[in-house]
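General statements about sequence and structure are easier to judge against a single worked case. When preparing material for the folding task, we compiled for one chain both its residues and its backbone structure tokens. The amino acid sequence and the backbone structure tokens for this protein are reproduced below:
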Amino acid sequence: MGRIVAKVTVTNPIDKTKSRTFDALVDTGASMLTLPKNWKKDLGNLAETRIAKVEFADQNVKEVEICGPVSIQVEGFQKIFNEVAFLEMNAPDGTYEPLIGYIPLEQSGILVDMLGHRLKAAKYLDLK
């Protein structure tokens, strides 16, 4: 299985001048859009909704700060409003790898084409 990376823009809906565009790794095992905590200041004054404990694939557990709502636009797909998780990330070379999980993907009407290594528009929203 290859890597799928998507261009994502996150914007503060109250102050639209506070925005960030970046490449995010599509991770269908993750639930949320997860960004480095260092980027939070770029999005202005976001409401913190809660602190949550998250478990990673290596079974480590860490706390993340959940903030929102923010506007999330994945490539040319439907823009949504949702929360974002800010996580302390180590990037020795200054390059972070944000993750986009299944909740914002589904809300945006996006299917992950694992064979074609791309994102596709869903015909229908899944309400089952």
Residues 5-121 form a domain with the Cathepsin D, subunit A; domain 1 fold (CATH 2.40.70.10).
